[in-house]
C-alpha cells in the first residue's frame, strides 16, 4: 500500500487539492520556506510523538544520543549519494541560514587585505557582496548585472577573475529575479564558491568543480534555519582567529557539526527529503521533472500577450518564475482569485512586484497545470 502511494504521489497530491476535509492541501508557490513533499510531511507527522518506536519525538532526544547521531549520519550519507560528493569534501550542517555564510565564507577563506571576487546577478549576490565588504577585503565584482536590472547572467568568458583572488563567489540561481546560470563560471583557477540555496537538489551538480557550496534548506531541502555546506578539505583550517566557533568550518567539521546543539528537526527532515528524492529516481529524475515544469510555464507565458517574464531566455530559472500582468492594476484580483483556486503565495517579492511562481522539487506538474489553467481563465476574463 505504501509503495503504491509513493508511486502515485503526484496524483494523490492533486487529488488532495479537490478534497474538502481538514487535510486539504493547496499548491503553494512560496519562494521559501516552500512547499514540502506531502509524503515527507505525512511521515514526520506519523512519527512525531513516537520516533522509531522510542516513545519520544525526534524533537525531544539528545543530539548526542545514538539514534540522533545515526539520523544525522544518514542525512549526510543520503546527500552524498544524491550529489555524488567526492571523498575529499566535508558536509557541514550549520545554523543561521545561508545568510550567516555571507560572513562565514570571508571569515574562513581570507585574511585582511586579500582580494575576493563576486559575480553580481541579483539581490542575493548583492547581499553577499555587501557582507564581504565588512572584512577588510578588496572585493572585486568582475561582472555586474545591475545594469540589466538583474534579468541576465554574464556571457561566459566575458569576465576575468583577478589573479590571486581567494575565491570567486556566485549565485547559481537568484531566487528573487528568477535568473539562473546555465553554465558553471570559469573561476580562473581560484576556488569557486556558490550559494545554491534555491537550486540545490533540483538536478545533478558536479561538486568537484567547486571549492565550496552552501545552501539554506528552506527552498528545496527542508525547514529554515539549517544551512548545508559542502567544502573541499584543503579549504579548511584557514579561519581568521576572530571567527565565531560555530562558523569555523574546521572546528565544525572536527565536531561533526555538533560543537553545539544542531537544528535536529531540520536535519531529520533533510534526511526524509533526501530519501523521498532517491525513491523518486534521484536527481536525474528531478531534473527531468523540473525542466518539464519550467518549460511548460515559460512556454505558456511566452505564448500569451497578457503575461510576461523579463529574463533573458537562456538564464531563466527552473525554480522561480517571476511574471507580470499586462495591467498591474489587476494584480490584486489575480492574487485573490488564485488564492480561492488553491494556488497560494504567488505575489512577487516586495522589491520587484508582479508575481512569482516558485516550482521547487515538491511542486508536482499538476500544480503548474492548475496555475496555467487559472492564468488562462483570468486573462480571458480580463
Ligand atoms: C533564501 C536565500 C538566501 C537566504 O537564506 P536565509 O536562510 O534566509 O539566510 C540566500 N541566498 C539565496 C540564493 C536564497 O534563495
From TrEMBL:
The EC number(s) this enzyme carries: 2.6.1.52
GO BP term, example: L-serine biosynthetic process
Domain Aminotransferase class V: 26-371
GO CC terms of this entry: cytoplasm
Pathway: Cofactor biosynthesis; pyridoxine 5'-phosphate biosynthesis; pyridoxine 5'-phosphate from D-erythrose 4-phosphate: step 3/5; Amino-acid biosynthesis; L-serine biosynthesis; L-serine from 3-phospho-D-glycerate: step 2/3
Location in the cell: Cytoplasm
Residues annotated to bind L-glutamate: 64
Molecular function GO labels: O-phospho-L-serine:2-oxoglutarate aminotransferase activity; pyridoxal phosphate binding
Annotated protein name in UniProt: Phosphoserine aminotransferase
UniProt source species: Actinomyces johnsonii F0542
Lineage, highest ranks first: Bacteria, Bacillati, Actinomycetota, Actinomycetes, Actinomycetales
Gene: serC
Amino acid at each position: 500500500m505504501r509503495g503504491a502511494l509513493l508511486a502515485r504521489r503526484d496524483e494523490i497530491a492533486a487529488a488532495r487539492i479537490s478534497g474538502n476535509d481538514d487535510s486539504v492541501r493547496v499548491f503553494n508557490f512560496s519562494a521559501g520556506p516552500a512547499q514540502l513533499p506531502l509524503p515527507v510531511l505525512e511521515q514526520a507527522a506519523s512519527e512525531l510523538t513516537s520516533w522509531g518506536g522510542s516513545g519520544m519525538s525526534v524533537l525531544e532526544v539528545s543530539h548526542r544520543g545514538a539514534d540522533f547521531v545515526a539520523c544525522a549520519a544518514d542525512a549526510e550519507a543520503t546527500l552524498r549519494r544524491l550529489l555524488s560528493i567526492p571523498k575529499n569534501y566535508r558536509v557541514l550542517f550549520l545554523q543561521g541560514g545561508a545568510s550567516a555564510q555571507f560572513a562565514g565564507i570571508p571569515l574562513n577563506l581570507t585574511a585582511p587585505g586579500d582580494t575576493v571576487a563576486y559575480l553580481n546577478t541579483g539581490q542575493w549576490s548583492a547581499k553577499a557582496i555587501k557582507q564581504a565588504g565588512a572584512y577588510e577585503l578588496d572585493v572585486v565584482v568582475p561582472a555586474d548585472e545591475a545594469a540589466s536590472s538583474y534579468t541576465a547572467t554574464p556571457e561566459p568568458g566575458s569576465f576575468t577573475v583577478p589573479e590571486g583572488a581567494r575565491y570567486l563567489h556566485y549565485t547559481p540561481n537568484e531566487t528573487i529575479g528568477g535568473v539562473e546560470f546555465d553554465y558553471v563560471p570559469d573561476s580562473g583557477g581560484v576556488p569557486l564558491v556558490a550559494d545554491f540555496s534555491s537550486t540545490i537538489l533540483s538536478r545533478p551538480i558536479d561538486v568537484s568543480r567547486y571549492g565550496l557550496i552552501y545552501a539554506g534548506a528552506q527552498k528545496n531541502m527542508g525547514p529554515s534555519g539549517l544551512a548545508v555546506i559542502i567544502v573541499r578539505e584543503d579549504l579548511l583550517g584557514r579561519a581568521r582567529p576572530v571567527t565565531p566557533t560555530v562558523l569555523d568550518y574546521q572546528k565544525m567539521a572536527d565536531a561533526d557539526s555538533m560543537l553545539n546543539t544542531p537544528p535536529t528537526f531540520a536535519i531529520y527532515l533533510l534526511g526524509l527529503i533526501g530519501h523521498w528524492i532517491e525513491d523518486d529516481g534521484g536527481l536525474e529524475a528531478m531534473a527531468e521533472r523540473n525542466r518539464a515544469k519550467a518549460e511548460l510555464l515559460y512556454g505558456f507565458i511566452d505564448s500569451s500577450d497578457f503575461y510576461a517574464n523579463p529574463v533573458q531566455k537562456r538564464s531563466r530559472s527552473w525554480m522561480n518564475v517571476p511574471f507580470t500582468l499586462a495591467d498591474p492594476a489587476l494584480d490584486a484580483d489575480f492574487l485573490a482569485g488564485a488564492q480561492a483556486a488553491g494556488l497560494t503565495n504567488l505575489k512577487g517579492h516586495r522589491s520587484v512586484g508582479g508575481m512569482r511562481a516558485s516550482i521547487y522539487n515538491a511542486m508536482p506538474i499538476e500544480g503548474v497545470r492548475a496555475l496555467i489553467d487559472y492564468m488562462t481563465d483570468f486573462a480571458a476574463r480580463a
